[in-house]
Amino acid sequence: MVPPFLPDVPETREDLALYYDEVSRLDHYVGQVLGALREAGIADNTFVLFMADNGRPFPRCKTTLYDSGIHTPLVVRYPKVVTAGSICDNLVSSIDIAPTILQLAGVEVPSSMQGRSFTPLLSDPTATLRDYVFAEHNWHDYQCHERSVRDQRYLYIRNSLPHLPATPPADAVMSPTYAAMRQLFSAGKLTPPQQSCFLSPRVAEELYDVQEDPHCLTNLASAADGAATLERMRAALDDWIERTNDRFPESPTPDRFDRSTGERLKSD
Question: CA-to-CA distance for 173 and 59, rounded, in angstroms?
């Protein structure tokens, strides 16, 4: 099924076929690793963590702060603690991985680590670890500076450079899907969410109800009934920015690739 933020055209289906082929290839090699653990007789005493570093390599996925870009798979296999088939719907951040492994290994977690061990969730998936998780999008082929905070229901995104379009990474820009999207955009045939990769300027703030709107298609930032939630999420992000000393860079890294073709720009 083509996600609603991608056009349902042959080019998109071609890219999806290549993507699913890579997913199958990955599954095959993960199976080989698990098989090696069984043959060595240590499968039941080994903590296995399977995760992705970003969303699918398509426009409005990879390098975005939508759930399609940062809500990635995280699967744990640890038979002596984790009940097979159990599901945890609570919030976990990638910075929680190191403290978790250190705790499982019996090593004291340094106080300098921002992450929190999610060991309690392994035995009790209903436990609560975090009220919020945070994410950032910095330079990735193109100049950008975005921050987000997400709780169990809402996602808030703040964009420091709204005059720049939300260009996907260069490899996605060079894909058949993006080429088709450029043609459809010029012909006025894309839906508003599908146009988001090309719009400039764009909104500086976005707020989504990820329970009712999992694809993050309806921005609630200007909705009157979302004002209280917007202020709460703003405050949570401001607090994180202050605690982590996060700042906009004095000299942001410029674009290194053409935003229309994905070709590398010549350096001065």
Answer: 8
